[in-house]
Every structure is written in C-alpha cells, then in structure tokens.
Design a protein that fits this description.
The protein is α/β, with parallel strands linked by helices. It has a single domain (about 10-200, about 215-235), classed as NAD(P)-binding Rossmann-like Domain (Rossmann fold, 3-Layer(aba) Sandwich), CATH 3.40.50.720. About 45% of the residues lie in helices and about 15% in strands. It is built from eight helices and seven strands. It has a seven-stranded parallel sheet with strand order 3-2-1-4-5-6-7, sandwiched between helices. Helix 4 links the parallel strand 4 (about 85-90) and strand 5 (about 140-145). The chain is globular. It starts with 8 loop residues before the first strand and ends in a 7-residue tail after the last strand. The relative contact order is 0.15.
C-alpha cells in the first residue's frame, strides 16, 4: 500500500461493477477514502466497501440518470466526509445491435444509451463541481471506449456516446482548469459482463487478434485510473487508451 492519495476522497459511480470495484480497491490501497455507489440496493456496495483496505469508506445509493439524486449524493459526501477530490464515472449501459440493422436501434434505445453513457456523466460532474473545485486538485476520470474512434462497438449509439465523452473531456478540461483536471480512460474489450451475450468465445477471438495477446482485465483499467490520480498530474482534457493495441487492427 502507498499513501499517494492519503487525505483524498474518491467517489466512484458504478462502484459495484467490475471496473468500479477494481478502481475502489486501487484507490483505497493508495490511501484514499472511497465512496462506492450503486443504483439499487446498498448491500452490494457495502460488500465492496467492506473488502477495501483502510477505514472510513462509504456505500451509497444514487441514480445516475436523476440529477437531483446526484446532487443529494454530493451533499451527503460533503456532510459525511467534508470533501471530494476525485470523481470516477464507471457506470454505463449498452445492448448489442448490429450496425446495419437500423430499425433495431430504436429512438427509445438511443435515448437510453445517451442518457446513461453521456448525460449522466455530465450531470455527475455538474453536481460535484463545487466540491472538486474546493479541493483545488480535483480530478474527474470518465471511462470511455475505443469504440469512440474505431466506430466498432456494441451499437452505433454507444459509439457516439463514447465519442461524446471524449469531446467532453477536451471541453471540460479547458473549462474547469486549473483547479479540476478531466481525463478519460478508454478500454478495448474488458473481461466483464458489461455487454450482454458476450462470453468466452468472443473474448478468445478478440484476444487472438489483439497485439498484446489478451483482452483487458478490470484491474488494467483501474490501474490507468489510479495513474490519472497519482502520476499524470500534468495531463488534462485527453483520452488515455488502454486496449492492448486493439485499435491498431
């Protein structure tokens, strides 16, 4: 364990997912007090909190698509912990739709994907902006995707939402400087259950065509998020690709 983040408070939206939980572990090991959020049922978030090294961590329930809920979360963090220095947006949603099947990508699905994968991240930053600004060394890390630039992903709307996150990092990296840095971490395929219907066969096929010979793990992505907080102190407004060279194909 290091003390690079000693005294810092990190809020992880989607903290019970594969990447979120791995990030919570890394940031806690680095000394941060971690707030792990979930959208429903606090038990799973509490389970992640109980597994973390250190003390003082919190579990919380919030709806990322409800701006009022995000403001309530920010107020709760301020009341209980007094500060927020790091905001990590790992929560997301997608559904596989073949890119050529335009009819299957309905208006309702497009709206849901944009709401969960772009609007929610912006709303979370908006809700936590004051606390991050008070820190003077605030950091936002969003989880993007190489689909933002390759155009290859679970569906076209998901690719578009992630491209929007990349633009958001550039825009807010400029607008919120110098007191808040904004970075994206952009994975390729990661070994989680995030995309419904993708199993071992899909992962093996992708690994075979990835230059580094495997797909990513949640900890690979968490390590990059940790680096944003501990080592990349002179970086903002950019997207950091963590894909094993997948985008090179």
């Amino acid at each position: 364990m290091s003390n690079d983040l000693e005294g810092k408070v990190a809020v992880i939206l989607g903290g019970t997912g594969g990447i979120g939980a791995a990030t919570a572990t890394r940031l806690a090991k680095a000394g941060a007090t971690v707030v792990v959020t979930t959208q429903s049922g606090i038990a799973k978030a509490q389970q992640v909190v109980d597994s973390l090294p250190g003390s003082g961590h919190l579990a919380a329930v919030t709806s990322i698509t409800d701006s009022a809920s995000l403001v309530d979360l920010a107020n709760c963090v301020k009341a209980q912990l007094g500060r927020a220095d790091i905001l990590v947006n790992t929560a997301g949603f997608t559904k596989p739709v073949k890119h050529a099947d335009l009819d299957a990508l309905t208006d309702e699905l497009i709206d849901e994907i944009m709401k969960v994968n772009w609007r929610a991240q912006f709303a979370a930053i908006r809700a936590f902006r004051a606390l991050l600004d008070e820190s003077g060394d605030g950091l936002v890390v969003n989880v993007s995707s190489i689909s933002a630039t390759t155009g290859v992903g679970s569906n076209i709307a998901y690719c578009a939402a992630k491209a929007g996150l990349d633009v958001m990092a550039a825009s807010l990296g400029r607008a919120l400087a110098p007191r808040i840095r904004v970075l994206n971490v952009s994975p390729g395929v990661v070994d989680t259950r995030f995309v419904p219907g993708r199993g071992a066969d899909f992962n093996d096929k992708v690994a075979a065509t990835t230059p580094l010979g495997r797909i990513g793990t949640p900890d690979d992505i968490a390590a990059a998020i940790e680096a944003c907080a501990t080592h990349l102190k002179f970086s903002t407004g950019v997207t950091i690709v963590v894909d094993g060279g997948r985008r090179l194909n």
